[in-house]
Amino acid sequence: MNECERGIAALEDALYAIGGKWKLRIVSALKDSGARRFNELQRTVKGISPRVLSNELKELEMNGFVKRIVHAQSPVLVEYELTPYSDTLKDVLVALIQWGANHRVRVREGAHSAV
Amino acid sequence: MNECERGIAALEDALYAIGGKWKLRIVSALKDSGARRFNELQRTVKGISPRVLSNELKELEMNGFVKRIVHAQSPVLVEYELTPYSDTLKDVLVALIQWGANHRVRVREGAHSAV
DNA sequence: GTTACTACTATCCTTTAGTATACTACTATC
DNA sequence: GATAGTAGTATACTAAAGGATAGTAGTAAC
């Protein structure tokens, strides 16, 4: 595996971790509101189905972005919250947002702007 | 559309522009070698089918990353090359690669490392 | 004991992404 | 005139992502 291939692999790991329709919306919802329960999240993240929410939370947990906290009293209460590790995404997300916002304007303008 | 939604939209534009299995491999191939013809690219980017290569090149062109140059002599020769605009991806790609490389190590280690 | 909440899982379906491969229209070579 | 290269397109398929909706197991309130 040469340097270029390692770069592509790292890139794909990163894109896989934050890619898809819902992951960043869930992270965003948790960022805004702190710990949330499953059904609360389903109401907050508009349009997501419980199946998809469940899958995405598992992947977010596997990637270390989200912690699942079970409060064992009755009835069982489960909360999801962001980990400190999720903050490491900040720089890369800011870079993506800035580039994306600029790109959006550029494409809207029909790419007439120089360079 | 509030600020958060605009951020998500910008993010999705960015992820869409660089996402998928092939876009960055094509960009990478063009970066390494300068202008390339269609069939050259198909040989360089291992495993891509002509259909997908054709689709991806059209999207890359629409996004302003790639320029399609037709040399009208006979036989017709078509070359694809990166635009200066494609350089604007550099910072965001570097950030993604660094984060992804770190994340890969972290996940391999079973996420035992602090934070 | 019915209703409603908790946190999900299961099943099925549609849509999107990607793969495989044949084919076209043209030019050039042997 | 058969073969091979140019730059793709067309058709048909599989695989992965996501959507819709019903159901489960438990608790609690009315």
Could you describe the 3D structure shown?
The structure is a homodimer of 115-residue chains. The first copy, chain A, is of the alpha+beta class. Chain A has one domain (21-108): Orthogonal Bundle (Arc Repressor Mutant, subunit A), CATH 1.10.10.10. Chain A has five helices and three strands. A three-stranded antiparallel β-sheet of chain A has the order 1-3-2. The longest helix of chain A has 19 residues, at 90-108. The first copy, chain A, starts with a helix and ends in a 7-residue tail after the last helix. The model of chain A has no long low-confidence stretch (mean pLDDT 92). The A-B interface holds A 4, 6-15, 17-19, 24-25, 28, 32, 62-64, 83-85, 88-89, 91-93, 95-104, 106-107, 111, 115 and B 4, 6-15, 17-19, 24-25, 28, 32, 62-64, 83-85, 88-89, 91-93, 95-104, 106-107, 111, 115. The structure holds a DNA duplex (30 and 30 nucleotides).
Question: What keyword list fits this structure?
Answer:
homodimer; 115 residues; alpha+beta; Arc Repressor Mutant, subunit A; three-stranded antiparallel β-sheet; globular
Question: Beta-strand level of the residues of chain A, as a percent range?
Answer: 5-15%
Q: Can you give the helix content of chain A as a percent range?
A: 55-70%
Main interface by residue count: A-B, 43 and 43 residues
| Backbone structural class of chain A | alpha+beta
Strand arrangement across the biggest beta sheet of chain A:
1-3-2
Which shape of chain A, going by the Cα principal axes?
A: globular
Can you identify the CATH superfamily of chain A? Winged helix-like DNA-binding domain superfamily/Winged helix DNA-binding domain
Q: Count of helical segments of chain A?
A: 5
The N- and C-terminal alpha carbons of chain A lie at a distance of: 33 Å
Remind me, CATH topology of chain A?
A: Arc Repressor Mutant, subunit A
Radius of gyration of chain A, in angstroms, nearest whole number? 18 Å
